[in-house]
Amino acid sequence: MAEKAGIVFAHGLWADGSCFSKLIPTLQAEGHTVFASQHGLDSLESDVACVTRTINHVPGPVVLVGHSYGGVLLTKAGTHDRVGALVYIAALCPDEDETAQEQQDKYARTPIFEHVEVGDNRVWLRESGTAHFCGDLPAAEQKLVLATGAAPVADLFDQQVPGTAWRTKPSWYIVANNDHTVNPDLERAGAERMGAKTVAVDSSHVPMLSHPDVVLDVIRDAAKSL
């Protein structure tokens, strides 16, 4: 058994594991084994399988942390028997009987969707969209986010696999008050529905990059619970 909880990260759309780069070194220095799932956004099933493989690779009880669409992966892969806590960052968290798109459709459409385009059956974020995705980052960091972001298959949010981990696992939720990508009302309602311990921050969609200290404190709290 690991001395401290392992940490597994799951990224969302227009991102890869590097979106957690301001968190990982600190958590490693504090003694946690940390891995970020590098799923390809090719299908919900394959992304969940990638997160599950990553969980299998990390020793001890695991805190599973997901950003945005990564919250869907937490909800599905988090049923793993070694996952002891879930941390949602401005994340989707559909129930068993709803897809990620159906959860989003219950709330007002956010500005980000006016700044995407479909090519090769992938949904690409335009440069103009970074203001709505990560607009509280310096310009150079916004360009890096755009350059390293993976584009999802066009129907990813309509796909479904079983699993609703937040119904049986303790959950934490970071609400991004100034989010233009996932509706903050969805975030607040999702956190309330799952009974999550909730922290709100005046952030864009990427609090792990714009407010890493806030996110680190939440992850530490979740890890202590194990």
UniProtKB/TrEMBL annotation:
Recorded GO MF terms: catalytic activity
AB hydrolase-1 domain location: 7-217
Top-level taxonomic group: Bacteria
Pfam families in the record: Abhydrolase_6
Signal peptide limits: none
PANTHER family in the record: AB HYDROLASE-1 DOMAIN-CONTAINING PROTEIN-RELATED, ESTERASE_LIPASE_THIOESTERASE DOMAIN-CONTAINING PROTEIN
Protein's name according to its UniProt entry: Pimeloyl-ACP methyl ester carboxylesterase
Source organism of the structure: Actinacidiphila rubida
Organism taxonomic ancestry: Bacteria, Bacillati, Actinomycetota, Actinomycetes, Kitasatosporales
